[in-house]
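Minimal example, chain plus 6-O-phosphono-beta-D-glucopyranose.
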Amino acid sequence: MITHKKFPNDFVYIEIENSSAKAKIALQGAHLFEYKRVGEEDILWLSEISDFEKDKAIRGGVPICWPWFGFNEDKNLPQHGFARTSMWEFVSSDEVSKGETTLLFRLVHNEQTLKIWAYKFELELKITISKELKMELKSTNLDKKAFKISQALHTYFNVSHISEVVIKGLGKKPYLDALTWQKEMQDGDISFDSEVDRVYQEVDTNIVLVDKNREIKIKNTNSSSAVIWNPWIEKTSRMSAMKEGAYEHFVCIESANAFDDSRVIEPKKSHTLIAQIF
Ligand code: BG6
C-alpha cells in the first residue's frame, strides 16, 4: 500500500508498506529515510532531531549526493551537490509481486539547476522495497556536451553501537583518507575507535557490515568506490542535526562513483549506479 503523507509544515513524503517491509521516502531529494523489514530493527539510521524542511538535507536515511560528491571547487556551491535538496517528481509505483514494490522518482534540469550546473540532465531513482532494498540511480545526459559526475548513495546504517561494528570486504583496498588527504592501504577489516572518513577505491566485492546481532550485505554495481564515514565525538558536535552521542548509533557505507571513480557521461548516454542491501 502506498500513502501520500506530509508533516505539519507540508513537507511531503510517501509511505509504502508491503508484506516484506515498510519504507518512507521524502519527495525532496527522493530521500529514503526509513526502511524496516517486518519483524526486524530499522536498517537505516535517522537522526531524532533531523530537519524535514524545504532546502535542508535530511540527516540520516539515504541522501543522494549528485552531481558531485563532497566539496565543489567553488566553495559557494553546496557540499554533495543539489539533488538531495531538490524537489523530485514521484513518477510511478509497481507492485511487482506480493512483498516487492518498486517506486520511480525523477529530477530533470531546471532554471535553478542550470544556474549552478550548466548541463541538461535527467536523474531517475528506482527504489525496490522488498526483503532486499535496491536503489538504482540512473543519470542521463540530455545535453549536447559530455559531463562528468561524482556521486553517492550516502546510506546511514543503524547499528547497535559503533564499538560493535566491523566492516568486511575492503581489506587490501587503497583509500583516500579525507582527514589527511593521504593515500593509504586498508589492512584487514575496519573497526572504529576514532573519526573515520575514507574513500575506498578498486572495490569489487560485496561489503559486509557485521554488527552485534546481524550482518548486512551491500552489493554495488557500476561502482568501484565506497565511502566509510563516522564522525566520532568531536565532529558530531559540529554536525548539523546531530545530537551529542549520535555517532554511536550509525555508520555510513556509501555506494559511490567518487574521486578516481567519477564518470564521464556522453550526450544521450546514461550511467546507472546500483546499491543492493540485504
Ligand atoms: C560524508 C563525507 O560522505 O558526508 C564527510 O565523507 C561529510 O566528509 C559527511 O562530513 C556528511 O556531510 P553533510 O554535508 O551531510 O554534513
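The first strand starts at residue 2 and ends at 6. DSSP finds two helices and 21 strands in the chain.
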